[in-house]
Write a structure and sequence with these properties.
five-stranded parallel sheet; two-stranded antiparallel sheet; 12% strand; single chain; alpha/beta; Rossmann fold; CheY-like chemotaxis protein; globular; CheY-like_superfamily; 9 helices; Sig_transdc_resp-reg_receiver; phosphoprotein
């Protein structure tokens, strides 16, 4: 694994207005809606962003370059984000910062035990909070010098990214449904619905997760989610 991003010839110094200038952030996140929020936060902070939507894609990125910071969602379609956190924590040289993210705050302990430097609960929309979280993980020479005003700006991801997430889950439900599939759908939609302020979809995802946790059949919960997804996809025309 290379120690630098080959696409960045020079690393500019961070400033008070753009405290993450010079950083390359790899976001390992399967939700387009959540990733769009992180893209906006990085853009406003001066950081370059790359995206991987699964563990396999993330590992391909690391064969080419080493980002400054990696933001890892804990629930991914091909495995648990803690596995990647463990790999990065043991790698040499190690990336400057590993930030775990999840819509489930109970997963923080597992992320920290795997080697994450910090944890953030989704949705992540506050510019100042995001910047501070990243800066605390960096060595002193990568932080802006002098006083810095905390930016209270929040970002609002494009609703088209939410529609992309709905289309993704519709495709998942159209495929062969297994227990693993239902667990993934419940986890994915719970975080996306919370980020998009969609309580009906969030309640449906929680109901599915509860049935799965009890080992019961979840046909009615799955059908309810499928109906909600189709309804939201129909709203694409209005958007």
């Amino acid at each position: 694994m290379d120690t630098t991003d080959p696409f960045a010839a020079n690393i500019p110094a961070p400033t008070a207005a753009r405290p993450l200038l010079g950083l390359t952030v790899l976001v390992v996140e399967d939700s387009r809606f959540a990733c769009e929020a992180l893209r906006l936060l990085c853009l406003k902070s001066g950081a370059r962003i790359r995206r991987a939507d699964c563990l396999r894609s993330a590992r391909r990125h690391f064969r080419v370059y080493r980002p400054s910071v990696v933001v890892i969602d804990l629930g991914l379609p091909d495995g648990n984000g803690t596995d990647l956190i463990e790999e990065l924590n043991e790698a040499s040289p190690r990336v400057d910062g590993i930030l775990a993210i999840s819509g489930d705050p109970h997963l923080e302990a597992a992320a920290m035990a795997a080697g994450a430097d910090s944890f953030m609960e989704k949705p992540i929309t506050s510019l100042g909070v995001f910047q501070d979280k990243i800066l605390t993980m960096l060595p002193a020479e990568r932080r802006p010098k002098g006083p810095r005003t905390i930016d209270t700006t929040t970002v609002a991801p494009d609703r088209l990214a939410f529609q992309d997430d709905m289309a993704h889950i519709a495709d998942v439900l159209d495929d062969h449904i297994t227990g693993h599939t239902l667990d993934y759908v419940a986890q994915f939609l719970s975080g996306v619905a919370r980020s998009a302020d969609d309580p009906a979809l969030e309640d449906a995802a929680k109901a599915l997760a509860e049935k799965r946790a009890l080992g019961k059949t979840a046909a009615s919960e799955t059908a309810r989610i499928a109906g909600l997804i189709q309804h939201r996809l129909a709203e694409r025309i209005a958007i």
